[in-house]
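Narrative of activities, Objective 1.

The group set out to show that a structural description can be obtained from nothing but a protein's sequence at a throughput compatible with the screening campaign. Below is one input-output pair from the validation batch, recorded exactly as produced.
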Amino acid sequence: MSAALEATPVADGVWTAAAGDYCSIFASAGEEVVAVNGFGSPALAGAYAEAIRATVPGSRIVAVIASIDHLDHSAQASELAGAGELVAHELCARVLESRGQRPTRLLAEDAELELAGHRFSLLYRGPSQGTGNLAVHLPEQRLLFLLGPRADARYGLFPDMHFRHLTRVWRELAELEVDAVVPGRGPTMDVDGLRRAADYVDALAEASQRAFADGLPIWVIEAMAPYAQEALQDRFGDLDGFDRHVGIGAIRLVHYYLMGGWGLEDTARPELLLRD
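Output recorded for this entry:
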Protein backbone atom coordinates (compact mmCIF):
# COMPACT_ATOMS: atom_id res chain seq x y z
CA MET A 1 0.00 0.00 0.00
CA SER A 2 1.43 3.39 -0.94
CA ALA A 3 1.58 6.22 1.60
CA ALA A 4 -0.62 9.24 1.03
CA LEU A 5 1.02 12.65 0.93
CA GLU A 6 -0.51 15.91 -0.27
CA ALA A 7 1.40 18.87 -1.74
CA THR A 8 -0.21 22.31 -1.46
CA PRO A 9 1.18 25.69 -2.62
CA VAL A 10 1.88 28.00 0.32
CA ALA A 11 4.00 30.74 -1.32
CA ASP A 12 5.56 31.53 -4.68
CA GLY A 13 7.63 28.47 -5.57
CA VAL A 14 7.06 26.82 -2.17
CA TRP A 15 4.72 23.96 -1.25
CA THR A 16 3.77 22.20 1.95
CA ALA A 17 3.92 18.41 1.95
CA ALA A 18 1.51 16.89 4.46
CA ALA A 19 0.98 13.32 5.62
CA GLY A 20 -1.78 13.36 8.20
CA ASP A 21 -0.67 15.63 11.05
CA TYR A 22 2.93 15.77 9.80
CA CYS A 23 4.09 18.55 7.51
CA SER A 24 7.18 19.71 5.67
CA ILE A 25 7.99 22.10 2.82
CA PHE A 26 9.85 22.04 -0.47
CA ALA A 27 10.85 24.85 -2.81
CA SER A 28 11.78 25.18 -6.48
CA ALA A 29 12.38 27.94 -9.01
CA GLY A 30 12.92 25.52 -11.90
CA GLU A 31 13.79 21.85 -12.01
CA GLU A 32 16.05 22.02 -8.94
CA VAL A 33 14.29 21.36 -5.62
CA VAL A 34 15.18 21.88 -1.96
CA ALA A 35 13.22 19.78 0.53
CA VAL A 36 13.05 19.94 4.30
CA ASN A 37 13.40 16.72 6.33
CA GLY A 38 12.20 13.46 4.80
CA PHE A 39 9.49 12.02 7.05
CA GLY A 40 9.92 8.91 9.16
CA SER A 41 9.47 5.88 6.95
CA PRO A 42 10.65 4.73 3.51
CA ALA A 43 7.04 4.70 2.32
CA LEU A 44 6.47 8.33 3.30
CA ALA A 45 9.84 9.40 1.94
CA GLY A 46 8.91 7.75 -1.36
CA ALA A 47 5.54 9.49 -1.34
CA TYR A 48 7.32 12.79 -0.60
CA ALA A 49 9.64 12.31 -3.59
CA GLU A 50 6.69 11.35 -5.79
CA ALA A 51 4.74 14.44 -4.70
CA ILE A 52 7.75 16.59 -5.57
CA ARG A 53 8.02 14.99 -9.03
CA ALA A 54 4.29 15.45 -9.63
CA THR A 55 4.42 19.11 -8.56
CA VAL A 56 7.69 20.03 -10.30
CA PRO A 57 7.96 18.00 -13.53
CA GLY A 58 11.52 16.95 -14.33
CA SER A 59 12.60 17.88 -10.81
CA ARG A 60 15.91 16.99 -9.20
CA ILE A 61 16.46 17.26 -5.45
CA VAL A 62 19.69 19.21 -4.99
CA ALA A 63 19.50 19.59 -1.21
CA VAL A 64 17.60 18.40 1.83
CA ILE A 65 17.63 20.46 5.02
CA ALA A 66 17.41 18.26 8.12
CA SER A 67 15.86 20.74 10.51
CA ILE A 68 15.72 18.35 13.50
CA ASP A 69 17.03 14.96 14.61
CA HIS A 70 13.63 13.39 15.32
CA LEU A 71 13.18 10.04 13.58
CA ASP A 72 9.57 10.77 12.63
CA HIS A 73 10.67 13.85 10.70
CA SER A 74 14.19 13.24 9.39
CA ALA A 75 14.84 9.48 9.49
CA GLN A 76 14.78 9.39 5.68
CA ALA A 77 16.50 12.73 4.99
CA SER A 78 19.71 11.19 3.67
CA GLU A 79 17.82 8.80 1.39
CA LEU A 80 15.64 11.63 0.08
CA ALA A 81 18.71 13.76 -0.62
CA GLY A 82 20.36 11.01 -2.67
CA ALA A 83 23.29 12.58 -4.48
CA GLY A 84 22.27 16.05 -3.33
CA GLU A 85 23.44 17.91 -0.26
CA LEU A 86 22.21 17.09 3.24
CA VAL A 87 22.31 20.25 5.35
CA ALA A 88 22.03 20.23 9.14
CA HIS A 89 23.10 22.10 12.24
CA GLU A 90 26.16 20.37 13.65
CA LEU A 91 24.30 19.29 16.80
CA CYS A 92 21.67 17.59 14.65
CA ALA A 93 24.36 16.20 12.35
CA ARG A 94 26.01 14.31 15.21
CA VAL A 95 22.79 12.43 15.84
CA LEU A 96 22.15 11.80 12.13
CA GLU A 97 25.67 10.44 11.70
CA SER A 98 25.16 8.05 14.61
CA ARG A 99 22.25 6.59 12.61
CA GLY A 100 24.32 6.14 9.48
CA GLN A 101 23.11 9.26 7.67
CA ARG A 102 25.56 11.47 5.80
CA PRO A 103 25.23 15.23 6.36
CA THR A 104 27.40 17.06 3.83
CA ARG A 105 27.05 20.65 5.06
CA LEU A 106 27.21 21.31 8.80
CA LEU A 107 26.19 24.64 10.32
CA ALA A 108 27.63 26.02 13.54
CA GLU A 109 25.80 29.34 13.29
CA ASP A 110 23.03 31.01 11.32
CA ALA A 111 23.52 30.69 7.57
CA GLU A 112 22.19 32.32 4.40
CA LEU A 113 22.13 29.81 1.53
CA GLU A 114 21.18 30.20 -2.12
CA LEU A 115 19.62 26.91 -3.16
CA ALA A 116 17.41 26.01 -6.14
CA GLY A 117 16.82 29.66 -6.97
CA HIS A 118 15.68 30.59 -3.45
CA ARG A 119 17.30 32.30 -0.50
CA PHE A 120 17.15 30.30 2.71
CA SER A 121 17.96 31.71 6.11
CA LEU A 122 18.69 28.84 8.50
CA LEU A 123 18.41 29.97 12.11
CA TYR A 124 19.40 28.29 15.37
CA ARG A 125 18.22 30.23 18.42
CA GLY A 126 19.11 27.70 21.11
CA PRO A 127 17.72 24.34 22.30
CA SER A 128 13.95 24.36 21.87
CA GLN A 129 12.90 20.94 20.57
CA GLY A 130 15.08 18.09 19.45
CA THR A 131 18.76 18.64 18.74
CA GLY A 132 19.99 21.53 16.63
CA ASN A 133 16.42 22.47 15.71
CA LEU A 134 16.69 24.87 12.76
CA ALA A 135 14.09 27.41 11.76
CA VAL A 136 13.92 27.54 7.95
CA HIS A 137 13.13 31.09 6.85
CA LEU A 138 12.47 32.08 3.24
CA PRO A 139 12.56 35.88 3.52
CA GLU A 140 11.50 36.61 -0.07
CA GLN A 141 8.40 34.45 0.34
CA ARG A 142 7.82 35.70 3.92
CA LEU A 143 7.58 32.10 5.08
CA LEU A 144 8.88 30.28 8.17
CA PHE A 145 9.07 26.53 8.81
CA LEU A 146 9.63 25.45 12.39
CA LEU A 147 9.16 22.28 14.39
CA GLY A 148 7.73 22.69 17.88
CA PRO A 149 4.85 25.19 18.01
CA ARG A 150 1.32 24.22 17.12
CA ALA A 151 -1.75 26.22 16.13
CA ASP A 152 -3.76 24.06 18.55
CA ALA A 153 -3.24 22.50 22.00
CA ARG A 154 -2.39 18.97 20.89
CA TYR A 155 1.03 18.85 22.51
CA GLY A 156 0.34 15.86 24.73
CA LEU A 157 3.40 15.24 26.89
CA PHE A 158 5.53 17.88 25.09
CA PRO A 159 8.07 15.26 23.93
CA ASP A 160 11.66 16.53 23.78
CA MET A 161 10.78 20.15 24.59
CA HIS A 162 13.50 22.15 26.38
CA PHE A 163 11.45 24.70 28.25
CA ARG A 164 14.18 27.08 29.38
CA HIS A 165 14.56 28.43 25.85
CA LEU A 166 11.42 27.19 24.10
CA THR A 167 9.06 30.17 24.21
CA ARG A 168 11.93 32.66 24.01
CA VAL A 169 12.91 31.09 20.68
CA TRP A 170 9.34 31.19 19.41
CA ARG A 171 8.91 34.83 20.39
CA GLU A 172 12.18 35.84 18.73
CA LEU A 173 11.18 34.09 15.52
CA ALA A 174 7.76 35.76 15.65
CA GLU A 175 9.58 39.07 15.10
CA LEU A 176 10.56 37.99 11.58
CA GLU A 177 8.60 39.56 8.73
CA VAL A 178 6.62 36.51 7.66
CA ASP A 179 3.04 35.94 6.58
CA ALA A 180 2.88 32.18 7.16
CA VAL A 181 4.41 29.88 9.78
CA VAL A 182 4.42 26.21 8.75
CA PRO A 183 4.92 23.94 11.78
CA GLY A 184 6.16 20.38 11.51
CA ARG A 185 2.87 19.23 13.04
CA GLY A 186 -0.59 20.67 12.62
CA PRO A 187 -2.08 23.49 10.56
CA THR A 188 -0.27 26.52 9.17
CA MET A 189 -0.52 29.72 11.23
CA ASP A 190 0.69 33.33 11.23
CA VAL A 191 3.10 35.07 13.63
CA ASP A 192 0.22 35.93 15.96
CA GLY A 193 -0.47 32.22 16.16
CA LEU A 194 3.19 31.59 16.95
CA ARG A 195 3.04 34.15 19.76
CA ARG A 196 -0.15 32.57 21.07
CA ALA A 197 1.55 29.17 21.08
CA ALA A 198 4.25 30.70 23.30
CA ASP A 199 1.60 32.32 25.50
CA TYR A 200 -0.13 28.96 25.97
CA VAL A 201 3.03 27.13 27.05
CA ASP A 202 4.02 29.95 29.42
CA ALA A 203 0.54 30.10 30.94
CA LEU A 204 0.45 26.33 31.37
CA ALA A 205 3.85 26.42 33.07
CA GLU A 206 2.66 29.09 35.49
CA ALA A 207 -0.57 27.21 36.28
CA SER A 208 1.39 23.99 36.82
CA GLN A 209 3.71 25.57 39.36
CA ARG A 210 0.78 27.21 41.12
CA ALA A 211 -0.79 23.77 41.39
CA PHE A 212 2.29 22.58 43.28
CA ALA A 213 2.22 25.66 45.51
CA ASP A 214 -1.49 25.04 46.19
CA GLY A 215 -0.72 21.53 47.40
CA LEU A 216 -2.28 19.54 44.56
CA PRO A 217 -1.04 15.97 44.07
CA ILE A 218 0.91 16.92 40.95
CA TRP A 219 1.36 13.31 39.83
CA VAL A 220 -2.40 12.68 39.61
CA ILE A 221 -4.04 13.48 36.27
CA GLU A 222 -7.52 13.59 37.86
CA ALA A 223 -6.33 16.52 39.99
CA MET A 224 -4.11 18.36 37.51
CA ALA A 225 -6.45 18.28 34.52
CA PRO A 226 -9.40 20.15 36.07
CA TYR A 227 -7.04 22.58 37.81
CA ALA A 228 -5.27 23.49 34.55
CA GLN A 229 -8.53 23.56 32.60
CA GLU A 230 -10.09 26.04 34.99
CA ALA A 231 -6.97 28.22 35.05
CA LEU A 232 -6.63 28.43 31.24
CA GLN A 233 -10.16 27.92 29.90
CA ASP A 234 -10.95 31.60 29.34
CA ARG A 235 -7.79 32.29 27.32
CA PHE A 236 -7.11 29.00 25.55
CA GLY A 237 -10.20 26.81 25.82
CA ASP A 238 -10.98 27.42 22.14
CA LEU A 239 -7.81 25.63 21.03
CA ASP A 240 -8.40 22.26 19.41
CA GLY A 241 -7.34 19.47 21.76
CA PHE A 242 -7.33 21.68 24.87
CA ASP A 243 -9.51 19.52 27.14
CA ARG A 244 -7.75 16.29 26.24
CA HIS A 245 -4.14 17.46 26.44
CA VAL A 246 -3.93 20.27 29.01
CA GLY A 247 -3.80 17.96 32.03
CA ILE A 248 -0.94 15.73 30.88
CA GLY A 249 0.94 18.81 29.67
CA ALA A 250 0.56 20.36 33.12
CA ILE A 251 1.98 17.25 34.78
CA ARG A 252 4.97 17.26 32.45
CA LEU A 253 5.71 20.93 33.06
CA VAL A 254 5.48 20.92 36.85
CA HIS A 255 7.75 17.87 37.13
CA TYR A 256 10.16 19.33 34.60
CA TYR A 257 10.66 22.40 36.76
CA LEU A 258 10.84 20.40 39.99
CA MET A 259 13.69 18.35 38.50
CA GLY A 260 15.52 21.43 37.21
CA GLY A 261 15.29 20.54 33.54
CA TRP A 262 16.79 17.66 31.60
CA GLY A 263 20.46 18.64 31.66
CA LEU A 264 22.91 20.68 29.60
CA GLU A 265 20.34 21.42 26.89
CA ASP A 266 18.55 23.55 29.48
CA THR A 267 21.60 25.62 30.34
CA ALA A 268 21.31 29.40 30.33
CA ARG A 269 24.33 29.31 27.97
CA PRO A 270 23.31 27.17 24.99
CA GLU A 271 26.57 28.00 23.20
CA LEU A 272 28.22 25.46 25.51
CA LEU A 273 26.48 22.74 23.51
CA LEU A 274 28.74 23.48 20.56
CA ARG A 275 31.90 22.57 22.46
CA ASP A 276 33.41 19.10 22.32
